[in-house]
Amino acid sequence: METLNTIAEISPSEKAQVLIEALPYIQKFAGKIVVIKYGGSTIQSDADRQEIDPVILDIIWLKQVGLQPVVVHGGGKAITKLLNALGHQAQFVDGLRVTDGPTMEVVEMVLGGQVNKQLVAAFGAAGCPSVGLTGVDGNLLHVQKKQHDGGDLGLVGEVTHVQPDVLHSILAGGFIPVIAPIGVDEHGTRYNVNADSAAGAIAGALSAEKLILLTDVPGIMKNGSVLSEVSAGDIANLIGEGVIHGGMVPKVEACLEALRCGARHVHILNGNERHALLLEVFTKNGIGTLVRGGEQTA
Ligand SMILES: Nc1ncnc2c1ncn2[C@@H]1O[C@H](COP(=O)(O)OP(=O)(O)O)[C@@H](O)[C@H]1O
Ligand SMILES: CC(=O)N[C@@H](CCC(=O)OP(=O)(O)O)C(=O)O
């Protein structure tokens, strides 16, 4: 039998059933804040995109049925591309970009300019107004220079405090906030913040119902399989064993920080899987990895 690819191939009663099955989740999550981290590894540039971004459509869907989505985006891939075009090498320590002054200029241009405006324009084109901002706007993300055992990371910021008033104003106005992860210290110096860390801190400060990290893998993987659930204790072991490394390290740290600060549920999903967000929020069998606080082994 041929695989069902489009909704047009599903019978009318099956279409209705899909909507009916979503009803309890729509009721449960009405009015709730969902922070979505859209990773740069899955954001296609305008030039590469052939269709409306399905992630943008999913987020609009969440809003239309009464949830309050807040988007925090990355853009590491685009930063590295521009740095290389300018003749600079990108350097990472434990998934964090070593950020000197000239690199910070590129980071701010790419995240606050190119990627942020691409996403805001995509929401607008799909009929849903959004407001783009960085963590500097409205004093959203207060940071201090991040200290790291692996050496001086330069202008990499660690979030010390989130001031979410600006987000509440944007949400109250009926807009989706779209946030680039740049923070500011008390002297006005801007810092490069890992987008997962920014999303975790924001989800905690908003006591979000869910923090969903969209990346380019189906979740936390071990021996080629996705772990459907991990606890804080599991994560410490997985990092110790080297199973979790690179860009996944700031991701899991952000998950635990969000849970500690008040976010209720945290998930890591594959943003390249079509409509992963809808499947996670509106169906019984969630997908990806659910991250839990606590020490018990999953
Ligand atoms: N145990 C693990 N499971 C899955 N991915 C892992 C793991 N350890 C390291 N990674 C790496 O983390 C990457 C995701 O982080 P990153 O590249 O920073 O993505 P994003 O841009 O979405 O934040 C994966 O593509 C993978 O290479
Ligand atoms: C300090 C640090 O590493 N900042 C990141 C910010 C962007 C980011 O996190 O983007 P992704 O989510 O796409 O990886 C960077 O410069 O790449």
From TrEMBL:
CDD domains assigned to the protein according to its UniProt record, in alphabetical order = AAK_NAGK-C
Coarsely, its chief localization is cytoplasm
Reactions catalysed, as given in the entry: N-acetyl-L-glutamate + ATP = N-acetyl-L-glutamyl 5-phosphate + ADP
* Alphabetical keyword list: Amino-acid biosynthesis, Arginine biosynthesis, ATP-binding, Cytoplasm, Kinase, Nucleotide-binding, Transferase
Keyword set includes Zinc: no
- Recorded metabolic or biological pathway in which this protein acts: Amino-acid biosynthesis; L-arginine biosynthesis; N(2)-acetyl-L-ornithine from L-glutamate: step 2/4
- The protein's Enzyme Commission number: 2.7.2.8
Query: Which is a Pfam family this sequence falls into?
Result: AA_kinase
Its function?
Answer: Catalyzes the ATP-dependent phosphorylation of N-acetyl-L-glutamate.
Concerning its family, UniProt says: Belongs to the acetylglutamate kinase family. ArgB subfamily.
- Protein name as annotated: Acetylglutamate kinase
The gene designation is argB
